[in-house]
Amino acid sequence: MTAAPFPLVAAGRDAAATLAAAHARCFDAPWDAGTFDAVLAIPGTSALTARPPEGPPAGLAVFRLTVDEGELLTLAVVPEHRGAGLGRRLLDGVLATAVAGGARRMVLEVATDNTAARRLYAAAGFGEAGRRRAYYPRPGDRPADALILARTLPPDG
Ligand SMILES: CC(C)(COP(=O)(O)OP(=O)(O)OC[C@H]1O[C@@H](n2cnc3c(N)ncnc32)[C@H](O)[C@@H]1OP(=O)(O)O)[C@@H](O)C(=O)NCCC(=O)NCCS
């Protein structure tokens, strides 16, 4: 499948409800609108969305830039748009924005049992930098570890 040519567009706190609606379709424990509003109020925090010509976002990423490090706080593509390269485009958009903002490193966290996301991050050059054991509850199963992944920037450096 080829990447849907949706433009990547920055979103602010006024989009909190829209972002929450998309997030709810992607995670078992999604962020609500209040959480998006609060997170996007933190200095250095931004959201990027993949916008079809009309309707809600097909995907979103929220990230924070500090002095020389970026942190990817959440990344998601709604189910009907997965497998078309949007996740990678959003991630590349975040990395490019981080580089433009002076970041030299990007970090993120992913559950060990999230195969799709782990492959996406590995293909984008992220490697394991740490692990939080039994971090994500899995009702009826053992909790999953969280992997801390990191990569240096710029992406081509
Ligand atoms: C992870 C996620 C963002 C990927 O989005 P996507 O648009 O489907 O990903 P892409 O089409 O850009 O795929 C990029 C790479 O990711 C990996 N990937 C994506 N979906 C995959 C799947 N179902 N199984 C295995 N690998 C997968 C592949 O390496 C793929 O590269 P390839 O197509 O060259 O093989 C999406 O599955 C999602 O939103 N999941 C739910 C939310 C989530 O888990 N977010 C990450 C939290 S850390």
Report the major sheet. Answer: 7 strands, mixed
What's the name of the CATH homologous superfamily?
Answer: Gcn5-related N-acetyltransferase (GNAT)
- So how many helices? 4
Give me the secondary-structure category.
alpha+beta
Report the radius of gyration as a whole number of Å: 15 Å
Task: Give the SSE map.
Blueprint: E1 8-11, H1 16-24, H2 33-40, E2 45-50, E3 59-65, E4 69-77, H3 86-100, E5 105-111, H4 115-123, E6 127-136, E7 144-152
Parallel strand pairs: 4-5
Antiparallel strand pairs: 1-2, 2-3, 3-4, 5-7, 6-7
Helix pairs in contact: 1-2
This protein binds coenzyme A.
How would you describe this protein?
- The structure is a single chain.
- The chain is α+β, with helices and mostly antiparallel strands.
- It has a seven-stranded mixed sheet with strand order 1-2-3-4-5-7-6, with helices on both faces.
- The chain contains four helices and seven strands; from the N terminus they run βααβββαβαββ.
- It starts with 7 loop residues before the first strand and ends in a 5-residue tail after the last strand.
- The site of coenzyme A has 20 residues, from β4, α3 and α4.
